[in-house]
Each structure stands twice: as C-alpha cells, then as structure tokens.
Amino acid sequence: MAPDRVDTIGAAVVGDVVSFLDGCYPPAWAADWDRVGLVVGDPGAAVGHVHFVIDCVVETVAEAIANGAGMIVAHHPLLLRGVSSVAATTYKGRIVRDLIKKDIALFVAHTNADHANPGVSDSLARRLGLGDLRPLRPAAPESSAGEVPAAGARAGRVDRGAGRIGRLPTPMTFATFTAMAAAALPSTAAGIRAAGDPDRPVVTVAVCGGAGDTYLDDAVRGGVDAYVTADLRHHPASEHLAGGGPALIDAPHWATERPWLDDVAGAVRDRTGLAVTVSDLATDPWTSHVPSALTVSSDLTAKEQRL
C-alpha cells in the first residue's frame, strides 16, 4: 500500500524527491550496515522524470536514459561496501560514470523501506491478497520512542518492523495458495519453490520481501500457516520444516520486492506531479530453469505407463 497522497509541489528538484522519500523511509530506520539516501547527483538539480528499479545495474540505467529520467530510485544499494575507486575500468565505476555523464541522480531506500509502514513487505502482502497486517518482527520499542511518524503513517496503524503477517480473505489449501502466489508475483525464469503438505489449510500467512530466513522463528511464533519470502537456505529451511514449522514458499528475491516499486512510484507521482516509470526488468541472476533429470524421467515413466 502506497504512502498517503499529499498536496503536490511546484517544479521539482532532486532534493524535493529526496525529502519526501526520507519522510516515508527515514534513514535512521536503516540497518547500521546499510547505505541509503542520495548516492549520486545534485539536490538542486531539476528533475522531471523518476525511474524506479530494484537494482541499479547497467540495464536499468539504460532504461532510465531511454526514458529521459533525471533520477533513479533504487531499492538495493549500488555502493554497499567501501570502495577506493569508481574508475570506468570497474563495473560499478561505469555505472557511476554513466549516471554523472547523463546527469541522473541515484537515491536508495533499502532496509529503511523494508522496516517502514507501509513498506516493501506491505506491498508484497497486498499483492498476495492479505489483510489485517501486522509486523512479522516488530521494531524494538526503544528504536521507535520519540520518532516522528513517517509520511503516509496513519493513526491506528500497526507498528513498523520486518515482514508482515496477514490473513487471506478465504481459506485455501497450500497447493492452491502456492498456485495463487505464483500467478500474483512478477514472473521470473526461476519461478517459485514450495515445501509443505499440499492439503494443509492456509489462512494466516507471513511474508518478507527479500531474503527472509532470518525470520523463520518469527513465523513459527506468529502461528502462521505459510511463510513467503526469498533466498531460503537448505539447512535452515529443512530444519524449520522438520520441526513442524509453517509451509514455505521460496520466491525469487526480485519478485518479492518488485511490487513495492509500483507503490512508491505512485506516491512520488502523487506528491510531485513528476512523470514516473517502473522497471519490469528482472534483475535476479538466474535466467533459465531446467527440470531435473529425475523429474523428466518420472514424467516419461508416467507417460509410458499410460500408453
């Protein structure tokens, strides 16, 4: 769900967009290892078009250039770890060069957008049809004390925090929910993986946009029937299931965060009146999916038995 609409402003500069996004996703809410905010660009530079992406890579920068954008808003940091050079001899250096040459600002909202309310996981939850949302792991009370509510916050909202827990409007089996999730999420070559009893009833669901096996225990404590996230690792997932935890859906990282782009782009458009575009370029590294030999063999055996 996008932050609330507010009155539009006049001719925008990069700093206007930055101020609005910092209000929605205060930098203080980011993890201490994260790198968020304005990465490239002049806050005083005029901007008429903003391009929204999950990853600032060569291809999404090319999209921004083709669209005539003066600013990119990305979810993942371009310069997360320390660098000693942005020379054009390096991959990220070439990106920085192209941004500067084309006068395109780059802004990042990462874990501060993950933990906001509404934020990345709210967008994922809404895409899956969940309601009555609450945090999967609420923000610590001491980190919330004295904070000024972010733009878009409304009285009576649940607290901010990582992930979300919500309810489906209609109970369904895990097999049906898995099929619904596959259809609802943006398409990628990898598809989604599921683990759990196909006939298990599903009513309450936890979600976390991006890598979420850190919150497997929170999903158990939340008493949910299924947990949707990305980048689940072999041992944590298998031990979680062996311990009787909720059924799991492992979706591509990009696909779980892509729904947020629509919401934040809509909020910026409503706030500033600027033109916005959203990248549908899947930036997950996996570009194809081939069934295993065992699956192919089993399918052939089944067909032979029918003949």
Task: Walk me through the structure.
It is built from eleven helices and eleven strands. β9 (226-230), α9 (234-242) and β10 (247-251) form a beta-alpha-beta unit. It has 307 residues and is of the alpha/beta class. A six-stranded mixed sheet has the order 5-6-8-9-10-7. Strands 1-4-3-2-11 form a five-stranded mixed sheet, with helices on both faces. It has helices at residues 14-24, 58-67, 91-101, 111-114, 120-127, 141-144, 174-184, 216-221, 234-242, 253-272, 293-306, and strands spanning 37-40, 49-53, 71-74, 105-108, 131-138, 161-173, 193-195, 201-211, 226-230, 247-251, 275-278. α5 packs across α10.
Described by strand count, sense and barrel closure, the largest sheet is: 6 strands, mixed
The general outline is: globular
Task: Name the poorly predicted regions.
Answer: 1-10, 142-158
User: How many helix segments?
Assistant: 11
Our Rg estimate from Cα atoms comes to: 21 Å
Q: Helix amount, in percent? A: 25-40%
Q: How many beta strands in the DSSP annotation?
A: 11
Which strand order does the major sheet show?
5-6-8-9-10-7
How far apart are the first and last residues' alpha carbons, in Å? 51 Å
Q: Could you tell me the mean pLDDT?
A: 89
Topology as a string of helices (H) and strands (E): HEEHEHEHHEHEHEEHEHEHEH
**Structural class assignment:** alpha/beta
